[in-house]
Amino acid sequence: MSDTQLHVPENLTWSAVTGRVRDLVGEAFADDGPANLIDGEWRAVGTATEQTSPNDGSSLGTMLKLDAATATDAVQRAAQAHRGWAGTELDERRRRVSSALDAIEGARDDLALLLAWEIGKPWKAACSDVDRAISGVRWYVDEIEGMLARDVEGAPAKRVPLEGPVSNIASWNYPMSVQVHAELVQLLAGNGVVAKTPTQGGWMTLTVAHALMAREGLPVTLLSGDGSELSDALIRSPEIGALAFVGGRSNGGKVAAQLADTGKRHMLEQEGLNTWGIWEFSDWESFSEILKKGFEYAKQRCTAYPRFVVQRKLVDQFLGTYLPVLDGVRFGHPLAVEEGSSGSTDDLPALDFGPLISAGKAQELDDSVAEALRHGAIPLYRGSLDHGRFLPGQDTSAYHAPVSMLAPPGASRLMHEEPFGPVDSIVVVDTEAEMLAQMNASNGALVASIATDDTQHGERLAEQVQAFKVGINKLRSRGDKDEAFGGRGESWKGAFVGGEYLVQAVTEGPPGENLYGNFPGYHRYPAT
Known about the structure:
The chain contains 15 helices and 23 strands. By secondary structure, the chain is an alpha/beta fold. The chain has an 8-stranded mixed sheet, sandwiched between helices. Strands 15-16-17-13-12-18-19 form a 7-stranded mixed sheet, with helices on both faces. A two-stranded antiparallel ribbon has the order 1-14. The chain starts with 5 loop residues before the first strand and ends with a strand. Pfam families: Aldedh.
């Protein structure tokens, strides 16, 4: 912990930030928090539930959680709005989406500060989340006309909106660059949008963004509530044209089961254990920078790498590079600055990560680590919250220092599941076959990478890794703009997204068209 006294400047406090956004979009708020956006109007309906910040446990106000009947009615109203929007000329759709982007860009700093309070993103990461949404959708505004004028093979064909609105159920970690980005592209393509706010964080950020979208006449519906209460309305309603889901395998499996007999278009992004394979490698200096970058946002990303599969003869060199990186990771309260600072966002600390999404998640990670150690894993590194950057006396229950373990046993959850936090595991192998088996331990992943001096051999190995994107001596990510994104095995179900694939996923092309994706009857993968 720093010896310097830290504080949150008055203009960056939750009350100051929410005061500014209330002034900006007052229509979106009830007394103690956001309302729900139904049929173009903000309605103060639902059961109030307190929300707290993972930064320090402080109250953020209340979320109004809807019941199933209200959500069903909202979806039916959204379907009516969808039909009107589907007939709107493309130039008008582009104009309105562009105007919404201008408004979002004008609120950029406060949106980023909301993310810092709601989900604990450090300033740089929070700004990136907002900026990527804006720049990504602007690219689609420029490219959408061509994308709507060809089929999946690239031949001339007119693509049309779906029969009903797209339902969006996304996790809390990227409200802007994943959820809002996807919704605006769906709107560009001629679809109405229904979105659910995550119950764990991001509801205020999404409220402000959707208020700015609604002001431009975009047909957006934003609902808050528990998944168990709203799932039938958001997944099985006959009015829904497609479902876009981002989350873990457990919830993803439940969603897939609910979709099974509906025949609805769907894009289900689920977790997988993303891995680094290290074989006949020597460029450790470059690898150090890659390792450091991997800890951004406490590895609370669907494309984080929590598993390293290392050739036995390289273990000492790997650890010599890896352990100092863990020791140098900086974490703490994202908005805490030294006394005497100007209070500008320029003074905010350059942290690798802040808290996890909740104290419950931090405890879950502790339990998973304890389980792995109990079954025989070897502790390599266990960081301490004493090294964090915190306010005097603040609640630190949602924070988790880096942890690394060698050889997690098969009986432990961490051997097969993504931890979604700063907990790494290392597996030592002697043969390429062992390495590939360990890299494929979770039956499919979104990304993976291989570190090797022989890049051509690495590319041959990559062909046997069950991940959608495999990097050679580099990290892979969702990507932006024209880069495709999907998953292999159990990490993805339905149509792939990214670039033209996202537009194809939310439009209808010629009869009999086979989209790229993982479907019950076939799998079709683009070049990645």
